[in-house]
Every structure is written in structure tokens, then in C-alpha cells.
């Protein structure tokens, strides 16, 4: 089954994600952005997202922030509609959105969608990295190399 993908968020974040996916995936088929910005009222945003959900039984929505207005509105609509194949994922990095977008383009199986989403979320979490500003081992090696260069009259 092909799932529709929607990006909801503050400002023009959704349009930015769509732009990134077009660059990375080469396509934006089955992808819709809903910006909640200074030009869009909450009522209009709610109406647009509700219409999208009514027109598509199989949907994965990515929200920019857990608990933000776009997330709250969309989650409420999904819960109210009680459709079994409509999901919302919040605070998702572009790598997760790209992964699931690619899988959606190939078609997802309704019987395994829950596990597919869990697996993709787990994999995405493992990719989030903090690079240390200072690593004691690297700092020690750097100091040793610098001292050797000084001893040899290096630069």
C-alpha cells in the first residue's frame, strides 16, 4: 500500500523538508506540506489537515515538534478519526523522514506497518550523535604530536 506523507510544522519548516527530500530523493510524489505560519490561522490549518486526512486513509504525518500546535492539532484529528492506518511522528530528523518516504514509495504492507515504523524510529535514534568538543585521548595525541614537531623543528 502506498502511504501519503505529510509534513506539518511551524513557519515554513514543512516546505523546507519537502525541498530537502526533493534534493535527496529526486521526487516529492505523495508528499504534502502544511505550514502553520503568519499567513495561516489555526482554523485554516486544522481545516486543511482534516481534509487531507479525510481524503487519504493511509497516511504518515511528520510534525516538527512534539507538543507544538501543528502536532497537537494533527494528533487530535487522527485520534478523532480513528483510522487504523494514519500515524503521526513528531520531532523526526530528515533522515527518518527520508527513510520512510523511500519505503512508502516502494509500498508498505498494512500488516507490518507498525513494526516498520518502530524499526525505522529505532534506527533513526541510533543515528543521532553528539561529537565531543574535546576528547581526552585525541587531545593527548594532538599535544604529543605538537611536542614532537617542536622537538624536530617542524612547523
Automatic annotation (TrEMBL):
Keywords: Transferase. It comes from the Bacteria. One of its GO terms (molecular function) is transferase activity. GO terms for cellular component: membrane. It holds the Pfam family EIIA-man. One of its GO terms (biological process) is phosphoenolpyruvate-dependent sugar phosphotransferase system. Residues 2-128 form the PTS EIIA type-4 domain. PANTHER family: PTS PERMEASE-RELATED-RELATED, PTS SYSTEM MANNOSE-SPECIFIC EIIAB COMPONENT-RELATED. This is PTS system mannose-specific transporter subunit IIA. It comes from Lacticaseibacillus saniviri JCM 17471 = DSM 24301.
